Amino acid sequence: MTTQITPLIAGNWKMNGISASLGEVRRLAEMLATGEAPRCTIAICPPATLLSQLNAIAAPSGIVIGGQDCHPMPSGAHTGDISAHMLADAGAQCVIVGHSERRARYGETDDLVRGKAVAAMTAGLIPIICVGETEAERQSGRAEEVVSSQLANSVPEQIGQLGIVVAYEPVWAIGTGVTPTSDDIAQMHGTIRRLLTERYGETGARTRILYGGSMKPANAREILAIENVNGGLIGGASLLANDFHAIISAV
Ligand code: PGA
């Protein structure tokens, strides 16, 4: 049985974008208004400084906005941090947690990522929980073991009504222009689907599993056609309206 899942194409702007970049979102909104209706949900996760402004431009086109990270606590003495509640207040509907750049550079553990995902759900946001192996882990044949363990420990025990999104992002594919083979993606997404379904039943069967890592207009169609790939988390190619629109059109 296959469950119908509306794909999600989510842009992760990372530490890119100032108010001048909003022109790209205006262009994207125009393209969406004049072209064929998209066959997916579209999200953009800009730097937090742009959330409110971007929301004003994106919301009329049905584009959802999201954060790139949040703190596990709702408020308090955490200089420089941002809570899920604040993101929601700025108009966000989702938030990326556990991106490999944060896991690697800030030592974020599965426990912390799970706490962030719980905080996101508590604030009414959908957490986009990232998992993925490093190049060394893949080369030593441990990719599935690593991703399974991240999944088991980063995804909260209880999933709320809004659900969660899982993003499989092999670390070695992020920003490198290199992607796994379609067979490798199919195998990993199949494993993630099996583990989610075993643990959460119907909710797991319906959970979106995104692929992320060097997805671009040239490879989007092929990747998005793979079984259990329910959309993409797109970094570099989400910064320009033309590229991002081409990926949206590939769904
Ligand atoms: P990339 O980034 O598309 O630039 O490889 C993806 C991500 O890190 O989410």
Task: Summarize it.
By secondary structure, the chain is α/β, with parallel strands linked by helices. 41% of the residues lie in helices and 15% in strands. The chain has a single domain, classed as Aldolase class I (TIM Barrel).
Fold and architecture overview:
- With 251 residues, this protein is α/β, with parallel strands linked by helices.
- It has a single domain (8-211), classed as Aldolase class I (TIM Barrel).
- It has helices spanning 22-34, 51-58, 84-89, 100-105, 110-122, 135-139, 143-154, 182-200, 202-206, 217-224, 241-249, and strands at 8-12, 41-45, 64-67, 94-97, 126-131, 165-168, 208-212, 231-234.
- The protein has an 8-stranded parallel β-barrel, surrounded by 6 helices.
- Helix 1 runs parallel beside helix 11 (241-249) and helix 5 crosses helix 7.
- The structure holds 2-phosphoglycolic acid.
- 2-phosphoglycolic acid is lined by residues 12, 169, 174-175, 212-215, 233-237.
Q: Give me the CATH superfamily.
A: Aldolase class I
Give the percentage of residues in beta strands: 5-15%
Q: What proportion of the residues is helical, as a percent range?
A: 40-55%
Shape: globular
